[in-house]
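Lecture notes, part 5. Sequence design as translation. It can be helpful to think of inverse folding as translation between two languages: the language of shapes and the language of residues. The source text, in structure tokens, appears below.
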């Protein structure tokens, strides 16, 4: 058991070895509403969904201990659903881990770059049969400036993601149902 935990931690450290989070990451400033306006992901199971994904909305609620709750809205074939994730802070500010119930494993999140008022680039790792990396671009509004999109694409390519894995999805329609901020 201890061995397994140690190995998981070692893997996570290796994964993080060449990725640094946003300098002086500030969770309070990161709080609030974000739209996921870009995704780069080359997991084979995700490929069929690439053309179907929508720019969904999420909210980050910081907790006093440095952890955060993420509520993410997703337009699915079964309607608009909200999912909650509990992000636990790692030792380095800007890095979190969370338990993915869907994949039954701990994943890790790094906020690679954000200026809080406009955009954030977030890197997600999982170690499965092989290690998949996902890069997401978050923005405070649905209209992102082309420079920011370009920055995101450059970063995704630099992480070894193929060009065709980079998706800039259209806005979700009526999701969340009340549609605040749309
Ligand atoms: C964070 O999520 C936990 C578990 O769902 C919940 O108990 C807690 O009230 C949430 N806190 C905030 C500030 O949203
Ligand atoms: C955040 O980035 C946007 C776009 O690059 C820029 O217009 C804005 O001034 C930046 N805000 C801060 C606080 O740096």
């Amino acid at each position: 058991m201890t061995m397994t935990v140690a190995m998981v931690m070692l893997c996570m450290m290796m994964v993080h070895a060449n990725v640094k989070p946003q300098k002086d990451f500030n969770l309070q400033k990161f709080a609030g509403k974000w739209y996921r306006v870009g995704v780069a992901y080359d997991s084979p199971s995700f490929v069929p969904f690439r053309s179907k994904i929508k720019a969904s909305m999420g909210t980050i609620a910081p907790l006093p201990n440095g952890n955060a709750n993420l509520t993410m809205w997703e337009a699915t074939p079964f309607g608009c659903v909200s999912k909650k994730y509990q992000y636990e802070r790692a030792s380095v500010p800007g890095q979190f881990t969370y338990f993915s119930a869907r994949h039954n494993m701990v994943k890790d999140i790094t906020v690679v770059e954000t200026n809080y008022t406009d955009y954030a680039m977030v890197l997600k790792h999982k170690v499965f049969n092989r290690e998949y990396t996902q890069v997401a671009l978050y923005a405070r509004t649905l209209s992102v400036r082309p420079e920011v999109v370009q920055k995101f694409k450059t970063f995704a390519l630099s992480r070894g993601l193929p060009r065709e894995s980079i998706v800039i999805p259209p806005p979700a329609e009526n999701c969340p149902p009340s549609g605040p901020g749309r």
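The translated text above is only one of many valid answers, since several sequences can fold into similar shapes. The beta strands are 32-41, 57-62, 68-76, 79-89, 95-100, 105-114, 119-127, 131-139, 166-167.
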